[in-house]
Each structure stands twice: as structure tokens, then as C-alpha cells.
Amino acid sequence: MHYLVISDIHANLAAFEAVLKDAGSFDKIWCLGDLVGYGPDPNECVARIQEFDHISLAGNHDWAALGRMSLEHFNTDARLASSWTRGALLPATREYLETLSPMLVEGEFTLVHGSPREPIWEYLLDAVIATINFRHFTTMVCLVGHTHIPLAFAYNEKNDRCYPMVPPFSAPLELGTRRMILNPGSVGQPRDGDPRASYAILDTEANTWRLHRVAYPVAITQERMRARNLPHRLIERLEKGR
Ligand code: ZN
């Protein structure tokens, strides 16, 4: 099977469409949460993913848009965008988001938005936190989103340590020999200094993980955000990828 693994679309339809086109043919989408929040197209993105065979998780922004969590942990811009999203959700979008859970196990893969230890909130960004998290799942591979930064951590059982592997990798990562935590980066709001949409292709026959980046018309998303009076800083950051 070829899985298109994506995360953090954040209601950015132009970025999502660019990823779908660039990915070409795939069998199924695995989406690691935060379909909505920040961006201008929450209903459109949720409708679009439902056209595919897919599994999606819930992220903190999806739960915030449903009113399942208070917005006090969000900064001002995120709070404003979340309030707008909450008001903009159509009943069908809301119903769909209500069905999502933040963590699932699919065969040899654990899928989670934040981290296996804290599925909704924890940012899995460094080797110390990654090492702890290897104790919180039992499959060979754990796929995470939430940080908006493509990263990989491989676990060394001999010394109970793990080490980060920073993309771009020279070749697709080989899976199956070591336990790993993998993050495909963000479709709709990358934060690693590269504004292009980020995604990964997981090939379970070849047992490989390959990251991809694709440019999308950032100005279209920015224009739609302006039309919806979304916060200026959120509009600007898209072209910087930070
Ligand atoms: Zn996010």
C-alpha cells in the first residue's frame, strides 16, 4: 500500500490541493489531525478529504473549533482564528470532526496528533522527549504531527536512547530495522523555514518513508484569509514558513 501521510492542513485548501496533485496516485490518506484552525477553508478541506479513502485524527485545533477545549492555552492570534473557525463550521463539518479521535493503531503503525504520551498537546521536537515517548507505544513506527516540522527519530534499544534524523534525507528512510517516530511536517502552515507544503509517502511494500515538499499559491490562501479578517501575523507567516 502507498499511503499519503499528511498533517496540519489547517484549512488551507490551496496547499492541500497542491499536495494531492503532487502526490499522484496513492491508495489511502492518513491525516494526523488539525484539519481546521488558522486557515480560511475549514469546510472545503473537510469535504475534500472525505472524497478519498482515508483515516483522519483529531488535533488540538479541531477540538478547539468544536468547543471541546478552552482557548486559554492558545496565543491571541490562534484564539481569534479559532473563534472564527468555530463560527464558520457547517453542521456537516462539525459532525465529521466530532467522529475523530487523536490516536489510533493501524497494524504496525501508531498514529497520533501530538505524542503517544499526550496525544493532543505534547510537541515531539527533541530527542529527550522522543526517548520518553518510545515507552508509550508498542508498534514499530509512530506517526506524529502537531509541530509542523518534518522530523524523524530512531530508537536504539541497546542504550535506551534515540537520535534525530533531520530532513532532507539523502534517500527514503528504510523502516523495519529500528523503531521510529516520524513526522511528515505540515501541509497548511509549515514552520521549518520552508513555506512549501510538506507531506510524506509511506510505502508498506518497500517499507520506506519519503518526505516531499511542494510549492503552492500562498497568495491565494492569504487573500482568502484577508477576506475573512483573520489575524495579520497568521497571514504573513505563510510566506515565511515560520
Ligand atoms: Zn497544527
The secondary-structure element order is EHEHEHHHEEHEEEEEEEHH
Going by CATH, what is the homologous superfamily?
Answer: Metallo-dependent phosphatases
CATH class: Alpha Beta
What portion of residues is helical? 25-40%
Kindly state the mean pLDDT as a whole number?
A: 95
* Spatial arrangement of strands, main beta sheet: 3-2-1-11-12-9
Low-pLDDT regions: none
Largest sheet: number of strands, sense, barrel closure: 6 strands, mixed
**Which ligands does the model contain, each kind named once?**
zinc ion
Describe what you observe in this structure.
The protein is of the alpha/beta class. It has a single domain (2-237), classed as Metallo-dependent phosphatases (Purple Acid Phosphatase, chain A, domain 2, 4-Layer Sandwich). Helices cover 30% and strands 23% of the residues. The chain contains eight helices and twelve strands. It has helices spanning 13-23, 42-49, 60-65, 76-88, 91-98, 127-133, 218-227, 232-240, and strands at 2-6, 28-31, 54-56, 103-106, 109-112, 141-144, 151-156, 161-165, 173-174, 180-183, 197-203, 208-214. The strands form two sheets. The protein has a six-stranded mixed β-sheet with strand order 3-2-1-11-12-9. Strands 4-5-6-10-7-8 form a six-stranded mixed β-sheet, covered by helices on one side. A hairpin with a 2-residue loop joins strand 4 and strand 5. The longest helix is centred in the middle third of the chain and has 13 residues, at 76-88. The two termini are 33 Å apart. The mean pLDDT is 95. Bound molecules: zinc ion (ZN).
